[in-house]
Amino acid sequence: MLLDDLKSLLQKRNLWAKKSLGQNFLVDASALDQIVRAAELTPDDTVIEVGPGTGFLTERLVEKAGKVIAIEKDSDMIPVLEERFGANSHFELHHSDILKIENSKLKIQNYKVVANIPYYITSPLLKHFLQAEHRPSVMVLLVQKEVAEKICGITGKSMVTIQTQVFGNPEIIGFVPSSSFYPAPKVESAILKINVFEEPLVPVDQLKDFFRLVGFGFSQKRKKLSNTLGAGLHLKPKETRAVLKKVGIDPDLRAENLEVGDWMRLKNTLTV
Both 47 and 156 in a single domain? Predict the structure, then answer.
């Protein structure tokens, strides 16, 4: 069993899961296999794996992909990964924080991202890759269930919903219970797949203003759009309501009710 293997490996090296790094090791073979299948890997694919840890997912990735570039922040895990995969010519290891590495420094343009990530970096990680000059074609991430549902717009929308859906189509592949991890987190998890568009829905040179507008809408998410947008854009309530009605949006809605297309129509009407 993977759990026994993990405990043995950690004990042998006097290691433990570090809460500060959000380490919860996935020890469910079926969930690991599901993640890899979702990525639809071929020998022509290059994969970036974020936070490989002890390498249980890595082991499956190197079997399917042509190259695996692993980015590990925890210095204690580097010797483990070097021992397990250092001799594999298809494996490349970087001891670094993924959020501090520009994709151009890895010298890759066509790649996929597959990872069981620390949940606290979900939003910045998505932004890091989706707003990069060279975006991945696919992202398959194990994330908190609640966040995955929010990204997909299943349970209402948030800023991260719009930030993701502008760049790709997210879907939930499956759910993973907390008992599949060691140590077990307090939340359930989901396998999130994002098929990334070749070009974002919003022109690149307009993204900054677009997200500024969306930010105004979500600045006070319990308030109506007519209030939040008006405050951000310095418009009178009457003016804001008129603009919203002009593009077919109910002024009494909240930001969480709007789709990406709604925000795009607003952006094309307003000067942000």
Answer: yes
